[in-house]
Write a structure and sequence with these properties.
By secondary structure, this protein is an alpha/beta fold. It has three domains: about 100 residues, Alpha-Beta Plaits; about 300 residues, Rossmann fold (3-Layer(aba) Sandwich); about 70 residues, Immunoglobulin-like, CATH 2.60.40. It is about 25% helix and about 25% strand. The chain is built from 14 helices and 24 strands. Strand 23 and strand 24 form a beta hairpin. Helix 9 packs parallel to helix 12 and helix 10 packs parallel to helix 11. The longest helix is centred in the C-terminal third of the chain and has 18 residues. The protein is globular. The termini are far apart. The N terminus is likely disordered.
């Protein structure tokens, strides 16, 4: 009997380890025409309005995964569906190696990608490491004054820009006490918590889990007069649990993307995430620094798509500055993720704040904010302090919501660029501080400058093919960004040089930004 029990235990252990994480990608979305002709079936009116305001068109990424595909995978032998992403047209699945590989025979399956790289045919690194980062109004900020005044966020508050009408999704490990602590009474009474979901447990009880999310939220939404005023006290919030505190698996990245897609459908303006990925329980999934290139990890690719939908993604840089792995982690490596490092109350960079650049040489972190002894609400519901880029990220995210409220006609591309340019190190960024501490008062002034008049500036043809021709009175600085915000061209024009060669650009939509003598203009252009 003892021998049989031992065999059963061994079999159980072997079986549990035989379950593999993988993503199955599909070739198409057969219901494309139906959904595009009736967009309200996949996005709320608020989401559609946000797109329209920024001239962002619907595309196939907005369309849900085919129900037929999902059902077929669900009914396949030994397969469990753990998460799904319409943006990447993929399902996160769990099953044996053999059962997962058998899905390749399905006619609609484009690719099966195992999280364990050694199981893939091609030498792709699919590894994760997750670092949980340790965590005209006149407000009496108390101990929180330093963290908002450092960014000149109080100037926005004084002009009545407090985040009202803006919506922030917080993706974290849990939010216990938000439904009962007095520090959140104000946002409860004003119906500013618009909803949430626990993607780990697959239920609607999001007032549970780790108190990390509660502390993060408090830096934006907490309100204890004379002690703590959040940086966006009048914004609306969705609270999503995507982190599994008990397990470190690749599934968490997929849950994050799934939650981000839901946030998009609800019309969310900003997403704050105080999580990062660089090791898992199973070392086969571990990332290397080379993977921090903005295009390798599942979560980072999802974050960039979120930006292309018009959302601003704010993410903590990580707390590995003093560790052997001292770099940022995914999705902080994203091309369009606004990555936040940490300083103390004296504006001195903290030792724990993770370093950039990305492995392909881009500046990260982008900017920095107070993450050393940040004023927040602790797990007991009391005003306290905590240190980590987990808190510098939401501190600045709330100010961005106020800043965007003050500039409602600007795109997420314009808002993010203005923030970077206002940093005190913009001309000389560093590997740990990026472009430095933003000055939102300065950024507000910059975005308030009159645009170039229509008489002073013209560009044609639009749509264009091989070149763009410009008409302007003086020297002109031109930048072109692709639809997910990557700068693909930068050129200075003068009276002898008024054209830009665009033959190298692929067909599609681009954002053209021109600057001249303090004036600027952004417009959408189409390459055919």
């Amino acid at each position: 009997m003892k021998k049989l029990s031992l065999l059963l235990i061994i079999f159980s252990i072997q079986f549990s380890f035989s379950q593999e994480h993988a993503w199955v990608y599909f070739k198409d979305k057969p219901d494309e025409a139906v959904f595009l002709s009736n967009p309200i079936t996949m996005l709320t009116q608020k989401a559609l309005d946000r797109r329209a305001k920024q001239n962002i068109f619907l595309d196939t990424k907005d369309i849900p995964i085919s129900d037929i595909y999902i059902t077929t995978i669900k009914e396949a032998n030994g397969i469990q569906i753990k998460a799904k992403s319409k943006w990447l047209n993929a399902l996160h699945i769990l099953g044996s190696e053999a059962d997962i590989k058998a899905l390749k025979s399905l006619s609609f399956v484009k690719l099966v990608d195992f999280a364990a790289n050694n199981l893939n045919n091609k030498a792709q690194l699919s590894k994760y490491i997750r670092n949980k980062f340790e965590i005209v109004k006149d407000f009496n900020y108390g101990g929180s004054a330093n963290q908002i005044e450092m960014l000149k966020g109080d100037v926005l508050h004084q002009q009545n820009f407090t985040g009202k009408g803006m919506t922030i999704a917080v993706l974290d490990g849990g939010f216990p006490g938000v439904n009962s602590f007095s520090a959140f009474q104000r946002i409860r009474d004003n119906n500013q918590i618009k909803g949430g979901y626990d993607y780990v447990q697959r239920n609607s009880n999001f007032y549970t889990g780790s108190s990390h999310g509660t502390a993060v939220l408090s830096t934006m939404a907490g309100f204890v007069d004379g002690q703590l005023i959040g940086t966006a006290p009048d914004a609306n919030y969705y609270l999503f649990i995507t982190e599994d505190g008990a397990n470190e698996t690749p599934l968490e990245e997929s849950l994050w993307v799934e939650a981000a897609e839901k946030a998009d459908s609800l019309g969310v303006d900003l997403i704050n995430t105080s999580l990062g990925y660089s090791t898992f329980d199973d070392s086969r999934y571990n990332y290397t620094y080379t993977d921090m290139d903005g295009k390798t990890t599942f979560i980072t690719r999802g974050a960039d798509i979120a930006f292309s939908r018009g959302i601003i993604i704010v993410n903590s840089a990580g707390n590995s500055g003093s560790d052997p792995w001292h770099y940022i982690t995914a999705p902080a490596d994203g091309f369009n993720v606004l990555t936040i490092g940490a300083v103390d109350r004296n504006k001195v960079i903290t030792s724990f704040s993770s370093f950039g650049p990305t492995s392909d040489g881009r500046i990260k972190p982008d900017v920095i904010a107070k993450g050393g002894a940040t004023t927040l609400i602790n797990s007991a519901g009391n005003v306290s302090t905590g240190s980590g880029t987990s808190f510098s990220s939401p501190v600045i995210c709330g100010v961005i919501a106020c800043f965007w409220q003050a500039n409602p006609t600007k795109t997420n591309i314009e808002i993010v660029q203005a923030i970077k340019e206002s940093g005190h190190l913009y001309a000389n960024p560093t590997a740990q501080e990026g472009y430095g501490i933003p000055n939102f008062e300065k950024a507000l002034t910059t975005l308030s400058v009159d645009k170039l008049s229509r008489d002073d500036f013209k560009v044609y043809p639009n749509p264009f093919q091989e070149e763009l021709q410009f008409v302007f009175p003086d020297q002109l600085d031109v930048s072109i960004y692709d639809i997910i915000g990557r700068e693909v061209l930068k050129q200075q024009l003068n009276k002898q040089n008024t054209k830009i060669d665009t033959q190298f650009l692929s067909q599609g939509i681009y954002i053209l930004q021109v600057k001249q003598n303090g004036g600027f203009r952004s417009l959408k252009i189409l390459k055919r």
